[in-house]
Amino acid sequence: MDDEQWRVQVDRRTCIGSGLCTAIAEGHFTLDEGRSRPTAEVIAPEDAVLDAAEFCPVEAILVRAAGTRTVLAPQP
Ligand code: SF4
């Protein structure tokens, strides 16, 4: 079901290429031309991806419920 999956986005204009997300959520992000992108846009829930969104220094990562689009991270 869609509601059980998450949608991961990286704003590549905001990302500063720190690589933190690739370390925190290994396998979920990759650096491409100095900017991060998710390795998959829709994923099974994985707490490390929430952590990556919370710890991104510029809040470039957005994690939402795939079905409802409720924002899961970063928390406001
Ligand atoms: S943690 Fe944020 S700024 Fe750093 S590479 Fe990932 S998305 Fe970009």
UniProtKB/TrEMBL annotation:
Extract the Pfam families matched here. Answer: Fer4_13
Q: Report the InterPro entries cross-referenced here.
A: 3Fe4S_ferredoxin, Fe-S_cluster_ET
Source superkingdom: Bacteria
Q: Which SUPFAM superfamilies match?
A: 4Fe-4S ferredoxins
Q: Which UniProt keywords apply?
A: 3Fe-4S, Electron transport, Iron, Iron-sulfur, Metal-binding, Transport
* Co-factor(s): [3Fe-4S] cluster
Q: Which residues form a coiled coil?
A: none
The GO terms this record gives for MF are: 3 iron, 4 sulfur cluster binding; electron transfer activity; iron ion binding
> What is the recorded function of this protein according to its Swiss-Prot or TrEMBL entry?
Ferredoxins are iron-sulfur proteins that transfer electrons in a wide variety of metabolic reactions.
Output this protein's name: Ferredoxin
Q: Which organism is it from?
A: Actinomadura litoris
